[in-house]
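Apologies for my clumsy wording, but can you show me some protein sequence, whichever is easiest, together with the matching structure tokens, please?
=====
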Amino acid sequence: MLKYWRLWLLLVVVFGSILAIGLKPRSHGVEIVYVTRDSPASGQLKQGMAISRVNDFSVENMEEWTKYTANITGSVTLVVDGREYNFFVNRSLGIEAQALERLNLDFGLDLRGGTRIILKPRENATRSTIEQVIGTLQTRINIYGLKEIKFFPVESPQGWYVQIEATGIGSKVVDELLTSKGSFEAKISKPVELRDGKGRIQLGSNYYDVQVLNDTVTVDGKRVPANGSFILEGIDFELGNITNNKILLMATVYRGEDIELIYTDPQHSGMVPVGDYFRFYFTILVSNDGAQRFAKVTSGIPSQMDLNSGEYYLKDSSIYLYLDKELQSSLRISSSLGGKAYQTPQIEGGREKRLDAAEEKMRLQTILRSGALPVSMETTSISIISPTLGSNFIQSALLAAMAAGIMVVVIVFIRYRSLRIGIPLVLTGLSEAVIILGISAMNDSPVWMGVLVVNLVIITMVWWKLHESDVSAWAGAILIPLLGLMSWNIDLPAIGGIIAAIGIGVDQMIVIADETLGGRMVMKKIYSLKERIGRAFFIIFTAATTTIMALLPLLFVAAGVFIRGFVITTIVGILVGILITRPAYARIIEMTLERRRDE
């Protein structure tokens, strides 16, 4: 049995792919695709969960979901992912759902449908402004790593809107990433000591008189209203707390335009457990102008020792970092930084769960790197959109594939006069498509780890019992299961990649058949079967390497977002071919020749 070990590797990988595609525990219900902010389920139910029951009614499909939730009010019980949730619905349940996907494949917008979201600017906006908004949002989703989101400017009598069409996008992403304006500010609290109602503000080497008389504040001879603001040396100040002997000012030292770089390397960014929560942090690099403002504001502030740590900090002074006017973090300022140009402030925060902390850290980094939107946006409507290619597209594609397979068998039979060559060729090509889909499947790590273990057992037994080695097949036994840890959208470009990979595979298998079955003399030398297979694989590996090298740059060009599925699928298909299916097919050809000799 071990002499057919390449075929066993192929069968194990194909079986693992089938499990990765079809092994999905949830078999009935509908899938949540969006939970509105006003929904009573907001904060409890999330995108991707499956609803199997509404009150006393079992939900099997979208028709039943629509029927049982239409105009529903009062006390509502939902069974979601096997757990019961109780809500009181006043106006609307606020949950958008779609048919539950039976497979672990993440089909794209064209094949499965998705969510349509309309964003409205909070103030008047022109088309040019909306296009700037779309550009910033596209940058955000690229940085954040979201998949297949389309943006369109839409005009109506009320003005310009942004239309978003997406698959697998949750309300949290919309509320916290896409509608967040991203206005960043860093403020420093600067204390000003008063004596008999008078004091001085030090900014670098300059001083400005301050006077407080009957709750009236005068700065540099100009009256400042209570809780008002003023500008000194281009720095915005706000009046804070006022006592008999002190005024606390809030000075804005950094803004979004000052951010030059967001550090993501381990030296400047990370996450650590602290007690019962996870603390995250990352450093930003700000402009020299911002650093000079920091130096001016922190000059003249006395230092004070912290009794707990023994470290010295600026007295009554901290730096506060805001995003959309919400405080993100506040840090005390070391006394060594007083009066110095400081360009690397640190943003930090915390969440109870590690995953939540990582998501929040990524969200903040994404918004800061993309910059602020020119206008604030709000969600006005959410709806479910149907697949643009229709529900029968997959069936039509399968029928076309069957017809193509029959044609290949006929042509190969005419060429070689043997079904033993044509039928395995088509089945091997079909196995490549199954393996590619299995690698692209979601939530399949346990399956592929099992495949890896079985493959390692097979190649270990081959080395031990047969003392036989094949570098390409051994590499495939290890690499292909590891590639199975990936996942990506199966959309039109990805389907094109599968077709391209199968086409390349058929060509390469015909090369193997020609080189091994021809039995011809080359350069007046008769090559053995092993040598002919080696010649075929030299051609195959050369062509595969050239194709992969030609495809890789497409991942990094501007249009890479739209063709990434094609590039990834094609490269994975080529690797599956040269490492798993081609060695197996070559063994089938060897078996065919052995049978011919026996006959």
Observations:
- The chain is about 40% helix and 30% strand.
- The longest strand covers residues 312-323.
- Confidence is low (pLDDT under 50) at residues 519-527.
- The chain has four domains: 2-23+390-598, 30-99, 114-181+373-385, 184-370.
